[in-house]
Amino acid sequence: MLFFDRAMLAMGNILFLIGLTIIIGPAKTLLFFARKQKAKGTGAFFGGLLLILMRWPLIGFLVEMYGILILFGDFFGTIAAFARNAPVVGPYIGLAIDRLGVGRSTDLPV
Protein backbone atom coordinates (compact mmCIF):
# COMPACT_ATOMS: atom_id res chain seq x y z
CA MET A 1 0.00 0.00 0.00
CA LEU A 2 2.88 2.37 0.74
CA PHE A 3 4.96 1.17 -2.22
CA PHE A 4 4.15 4.25 -4.32
CA ASP A 5 4.06 6.72 -1.45
CA ARG A 6 5.50 9.98 -2.77
CA ALA A 7 7.47 10.84 0.38
CA MET A 8 9.01 7.38 0.71
CA LEU A 9 10.05 7.27 -2.96
CA ALA A 10 11.61 10.73 -2.74
CA MET A 11 13.43 9.83 0.48
CA GLY A 12 14.71 6.60 -1.06
CA ASN A 13 16.04 8.47 -4.10
CA ILE A 14 17.81 11.04 -1.96
CA LEU A 15 19.35 8.33 0.21
CA PHE A 16 20.42 6.45 -2.95
CA LEU A 17 22.22 9.55 -4.23
CA ILE A 18 23.83 10.18 -0.85
CA GLY A 19 24.98 6.55 -0.62
CA LEU A 20 26.42 6.63 -4.12
CA THR A 21 28.26 9.84 -3.30
CA ILE A 22 29.68 8.36 -0.10
CA ILE A 23 30.84 5.19 -1.88
CA ILE A 24 32.53 6.66 -4.97
CA GLY A 25 33.01 10.29 -3.92
CA PRO A 26 31.38 13.54 -5.01
CA ALA A 27 33.62 14.20 -8.03
CA LYS A 28 33.14 10.72 -9.52
CA THR A 29 29.41 10.87 -8.84
CA LEU A 30 29.12 14.10 -10.79
CA LEU A 31 31.27 12.70 -13.59
CA PHE A 32 29.14 9.54 -13.69
CA PHE A 33 25.88 11.45 -14.12
CA ALA A 34 27.42 14.06 -16.47
CA ARG A 35 28.75 11.65 -19.14
CA LYS A 36 27.42 12.31 -22.64
CA GLN A 37 26.58 8.65 -23.28
CA LYS A 38 24.58 8.56 -20.01
CA ALA A 39 22.65 11.80 -20.62
CA LYS A 40 19.40 10.00 -21.49
CA GLY A 41 19.60 7.89 -18.33
CA THR A 42 20.45 10.88 -16.15
CA GLY A 43 17.56 12.87 -17.60
CA ALA A 44 15.16 9.98 -17.09
CA PHE A 45 16.29 9.40 -13.49
CA PHE A 46 16.01 13.03 -12.42
CA GLY A 47 12.86 13.52 -14.52
CA GLY A 48 11.29 10.59 -12.69
CA LEU A 49 12.30 12.12 -9.37
CA LEU A 50 10.66 15.37 -10.45
CA LEU A 51 7.49 13.51 -11.47
CA ILE A 52 7.39 11.85 -8.06
CA LEU A 53 7.69 15.22 -6.36
CA MET A 54 4.91 16.56 -8.61
CA ARG A 55 2.54 13.84 -7.30
CA TRP A 56 2.82 11.36 -10.18
CA PRO A 57 4.52 8.51 -8.26
CA LEU A 58 3.68 5.56 -10.53
CA ILE A 59 4.76 7.26 -13.76
CA GLY A 60 7.77 8.81 -12.02
CA PHE A 61 8.83 5.42 -10.70
CA LEU A 62 8.61 3.85 -14.16
CA VAL A 63 10.62 6.70 -15.70
CA GLU A 64 13.23 6.35 -12.95
CA MET A 65 13.51 2.60 -13.54
CA TYR A 66 14.18 3.27 -17.22
CA GLY A 67 16.90 5.76 -16.23
CA ILE A 68 18.48 3.35 -13.77
CA LEU A 69 18.56 0.59 -16.40
CA ILE A 70 20.38 2.91 -18.78
CA LEU A 71 22.74 4.29 -16.12
CA PHE A 72 23.63 1.01 -14.42
CA GLY A 73 23.06 -1.49 -17.24
CA ASP A 74 26.81 -1.97 -17.63
CA PHE A 75 27.01 -3.40 -14.11
CA PHE A 76 24.72 -6.36 -14.82
CA GLY A 77 27.58 -8.43 -16.24
CA THR A 78 29.66 -7.78 -13.13
CA ILE A 79 26.77 -8.72 -10.86
CA ALA A 80 26.15 -11.89 -12.90
CA ALA A 81 29.81 -12.93 -12.60
CA PHE A 82 29.74 -12.35 -8.85
CA ALA A 83 26.51 -14.36 -8.46
CA ARG A 84 27.99 -17.31 -10.39
CA ASN A 85 30.74 -17.63 -7.78
CA ALA A 86 28.37 -17.85 -4.82
CA PRO A 87 28.78 -21.12 -2.95
CA VAL A 88 25.99 -23.73 -3.16
CA VAL A 89 23.54 -21.66 -5.27
CA GLY A 90 26.08 -20.25 -7.76
CA PRO A 91 25.63 -22.95 -10.43
CA TYR A 92 21.84 -22.57 -10.30
CA ILE A 93 22.11 -18.79 -10.56
CA GLY A 94 24.52 -19.29 -13.47
CA LEU A 95 21.93 -21.41 -15.31
CA ALA A 96 19.26 -18.77 -14.77
CA ILE A 97 21.60 -16.01 -15.93
CA ASP A 98 22.51 -17.96 -19.06
CA ARG A 99 18.84 -18.39 -19.91
CA LEU A 100 18.19 -14.68 -19.39
CA GLY A 101 21.13 -13.77 -21.64
CA VAL A 102 23.06 -11.53 -19.25
CA GLY A 103 26.68 -11.09 -20.37
CA ARG A 104 29.76 -12.41 -18.61
CA SER A 105 31.60 -9.09 -18.50
CA THR A 106 33.55 -8.35 -15.32
CA ASP A 107 34.83 -4.92 -16.34
CA LEU A 108 33.79 -2.08 -14.09
CA PRO A 109 32.34 0.78 -16.13
CA VAL A 110 33.29 3.53 -13.67
Automatic annotation (TrEMBL):
Where does it live in the cell?
A: Golgi apparatus membrane
Arranged from A to Z, the UniProt key words for this protein are: Golgi apparatus, Membrane, Transmembrane, Transmembrane helix
GO biological process terms, semicolon-separated = endoplasmic reticulum to Golgi vesicle-mediated transport; retrograde transport, endosome to Golgi
Q: Where are the transmembrane segments?
A: 12-34, 41-59
Highest taxon, organism lineage: Eukaryota
**Topology with respect to the bilayer:** Multi-pass membrane protein
GO terms for CC?
COPII-coated ER to Golgi transport vesicle; cytosol; endoplasmic reticulum; Golgi cis cisterna; Golgi membrane
Q: Which PANTHER family match?
A: CGI-141-RELATED/LIPASE CONTAINING PROTEIN, GOLGI TRANSPORT PROTEIN 1-RELATED
Regarding protein family, the annotation reads: Belongs to the GOT1 family.
Name this polypeptide is given: Got1 family protein
